[in-house]
Amino acid sequence: MPGLIQTYFPDLSTQQLKQFSQLPELYAHWNAQINVISRKDIEALEERHVLHSLGIAKVMEFKPSTRILDVGTGGGFPGIPLAILFPECEFVLVDSIGKKIKVVNEVASAIGLNNLKAYHMRAEDVKEKFHFVVSRAVTEFPVFYNWVRNKFLNEQFNELNNGILYLKGGDLKEEFGRFYEKAKFYDLKDYFKESFFETKKVVYYKM
């Protein structure tokens, strides 16, 4: 699998390549038991889930010791691919559906991902604080903002100020409402040539 990933991230270590290459088989295995990814998407896991998650890394290269919360992670996206890419950062993944977190923990354990913890809980109940919150279109942005607005650390040491990095598609002006002017939108088609990314974006919102 690392073919497509390696094209866009050519500096991966042997360990990272191995971890990425293990994902298709692991997700196929777990998806057959606990449906966390649609059947058609499991065939395109590398492009639609792994590479899509790594779109965040094209916008923001997390420095070591950065703490990142992934809200509504589902089967582990974008958290697992980002945790592979940034082994010196700490990731906490949460989802309100317990069986999805079971898959996340099984996959993370199988590939030896030591910088990631996953919990069955709602975003509102997370007590820790983070430098960044990431997510993949779990709900409309104003709702999401209210879930996470109190979860940010004060210390700043990354290139972008602490904030939200949100994977979304389509025309977002109406959905974002009053948040639109302050948000910054990055088109993934500027980084990835596959047609899947034509309308996909990373939204950065500074907290």
Write a structural description.
Helices cover 38% and strands 19% of the residues. The N and C termini lie far apart (36 Å). It has a seven-stranded mixed sheet with strand order 3-2-1-4-5-7-6, covered by helices on one side. The protein has helices at 2-8, 14-33, 39-43, 45-59, 79-85, 98-110, 141-148, 173-176, and strands at 67-71, 90-95, 116-120, 132-136, 163-169, 184-187, 200-206. Strand 1 (67-71), helix 5 and strand 2 (90-95) form a beta-alpha-beta unit. The protein has a single domain, classed as 3-Layer(aba) Sandwich (Rossmann fold), CATH 3.40.50.150. It has eight helices and seven strands, in the order H-H-H-H-E-H-E-H-E-E-H-E-H-E-E. Helix 4 (45-59) crosses helix 5. The chain is of the alpha/beta class and 207 residues long.
What would a concise description of this structure say?
The protein has 207 residues and is an alpha/beta fold. The chain contains eight helices and seven strands; from the N terminus they run ααααβαβαββαβαββ. The longest helix is centred in the first third of the chain and has 20 residues, at 14-33.
Secondary-structure map:
Elements: H1 2-8, H2 14-33, H3 39-43, H4 45-59, E1 67-71, H5 79-85, E2 90-95, H6 98-110, E3 116-120, E4 132-136, H7 141-148, E5 163-169, H8 173-176, E6 184-187, E7 200-206
Helix pairs in contact: 4-5
Q: What are the defining features of this structure?
A:
single chain, 207 residues, alpha/beta, Rossmann fold, seven-stranded mixed β-sheet, 8 helices, 7 strands, globular
Q: State the end-to-end CA separation.
A: 36 Å
How many distinct domains? 1
Proportion in β-strands: 15-25%
Q: What is the CATH level 1 assignment? A: Alpha Beta
- The strand order across the widest sheet is 3-2-1-4-5-7-6
In the predicted model, the low-confidence regions spanning at least 5 consecutive residues are: none
| CATH architecture annotation | 3-Layer(aba) Sandwich
